[in-house]
Design a protein that fits this description.
With 408 residues, the chain is of the alpha+beta class. The chain contains 14 helices and 13 strands. Residues 33-144 form the MobA/VirD2-like nuclease domain.
Amino acid sequence: MISGAMRGQGEGDALARHLMKPENDEVLVIRPRGLGSPDIRGQIQELRALSLGGRTDRPIYHLHVDPEDLIVDNAGARARWWSLFEREFGLTAQPYCGVEHYKKDRRHEHRVYSLVRPSGQVIDLAHDFARREKVSRIVEYEFGAPAVRSKHARAIEKALRADGRDDVADWLVASGTLEAERPVARLSPQERLIQERTGVPLDDLRAAALAAWRESADGAGFLAALRRRGLDLREGRSGPVVVDGSGTAHLATRLVGAAARRADGTRIPAAAVRERLAGLTLKAHGDDHGRQAGRAHAGSPGAQALGGGAGHGAGAGRDAGGAVAHRDPDGAHAVGGRRGGGGVEHALDRLVARPATARLRARLRMLPPGRNAALAEALDAVRARRWIAVPGQTDMWGLPLVEPERRV
């Protein structure tokens, strides 16, 4: 069983367009749970509205599951997977919507869940990848498919025994996957999406960053080597980031470490990267859109979108030229930053500038308990209504419109 997931805000129509993309041979909208909107776009917006009272800015959980060809009962395997998955994560009562995709003789299913309960509690997704892998191993066992290799195989076997599924655990041990070499994905789902969006191959970027690292001996040399390749180094939220030709930031420690591991199997420790870059004064990523005055590098790898001039404007942790001092080895900024008390004067401006949905969530959290209970009851009343198809009427996708059932 192949599964993938991504957590997000659900804003805009990108997710709805992805679910309804016409490149599939067939798209079948599945019956939603706890939602009344007649189309996928409206259902996702409804999920967002139902989640506004939760303490999270990523209330939407989008998943897909794709049974392997060796599983004959595709629909049965999917139904069993979703049942086990919902019990594993406590999603059995959560509203969701979704579609089935049929393409190249294979059928798989997407679902979009709300992670916020009516009480405002946010569902815990800790270790969600390994937990979904455990669900997949159970389905593979029950439907007679071979066990898929996983880097979490030992943790899955332990969890299965804790759940009382010794039968599946014994099958997993007998399959030999616990002793097999741990597979490493070339790209994570998020990295794959970034690569598709930017058009910058991540393997090429890693190779360029590693080459710059190996031909330099200090931070200044690394920065110069990156710029010769049409890249740049900036200060990000979690440390220095390598900025590619599209202006997209990649954490330097992760980029260099992953490149070295793929090149010769030896990972460069993050501490070694931080030590070499300690003391560098870097501009914050986002100043002049993460771009240096680098038109001279336009022909080099990854530099198609580089351009622009130096950034301007001082702020918290920046000097008069807009630069941000890199963190010292103990984690503090050499200039400014939280330890220096910088940025406090801008707190009110940042609060006012938050999106309207974030401000609404904050107001909902401040309501008295009785008001929250009334809101939850009103939402439950909408969910409980029964909906019926309107004869002869469809939406823009050709799907039947629905309306509340009239009770006589």
